[in-house]
Amino acid sequence: MTHNPPIIKGYSDSSFGQIHWRMAGENREEVDIFCLHPAPYSGLAYTNIMPHLAKNRRVFAPDYPGHGGSAPFRHDASINDYARAMAEILEELTNGRKTHLVGFHTGCLVAAELSIIAPQFVDGITIIDVPAFDAETRAKLLPKSGGEYVITPELSCLEPAWLLGMTKRIESQGVERSFEMFTEQLRHGRGRNAAFHAGFSYDVEGQFAKISCPVHIIASQSALLDATRRAATLIPHAAYVERTDIKRAVLDEAAEKVAAQILRQVKK
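C-alpha cells predicted for AB hydrolase-1 domain-containing protein:
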C-alpha cells in the first residue's frame, strides 16, 4: 500500500513579516514545486493536490502576505508585492535551487511576476486557468471585486464569501471542504479582496511579454477558458494544452489528473 506524504506547516521570516507555508514530500534531487494560490484563499487551496505532486519531490504552498496564516498586509497590495515576498521564502526554503512554479487563477500572475523578478530561482512555470483579461475587462472588474471587503453587523455581509466558498463548491467539493474554503477567505477580514485588487491591477500584456523561462499553460473547461487561451498568445513560446475533460474543482476533485499533467512539465 502506498501512503501519501504528510503535509507539514511552518513559518519563515521575511521583509513582509512572517510567511506561513505548507510542505509535502522529501528533499531529493528532483526539482521542488512551489504552488501559488488563487484569490481570496491561501495555500490551503493546494492541500488535496500536494500529495499527488510530492511522490518524489518537495512541494511547497505558501500564503501571500495578508492571507492564511501569514502576517497582515496592505489591502492595496500588488502582484509584485506578493512575488517579492514569495521570492524571499523560496530562496530560504529551497536553498537557492531552481524551482518549478505552479499557479492557479491569481497564482498564475504571481508565478509570472516571480519568474520575471527572480529568474535565478525558476526553471519553469505551469499556470492553470489564467485570468489574462484585457485591460477593459480588468478595469470593470477592479471596482466590483477589488475593493475593501465591507464588514457590517448584518449576516448579509457574508453573502459574497458564502457564494464563492460554499454555494459554488458544494456539489464538486462536498460540505466540509467547501466550508473550509469559506472560512479561510474570512481570515483576511477587510483585506479579503486584496489579491483580487492586485490581479485586476496587473499589467498582464506588458508583464507576460517579459517571461523568459519555459511556460506551460493548462486550460480546463472553466469560465477562464477564453482568458487562458489569450494568455497563450501573450507569453512568448508558451506551450498550451486544453483539458476540457476537467470541468470543475481543478485542485480537488480533479487533483490526480491535474497533478499528472503538471508533472509532465517538471524537469527531473
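The mean pLDDT is 93.
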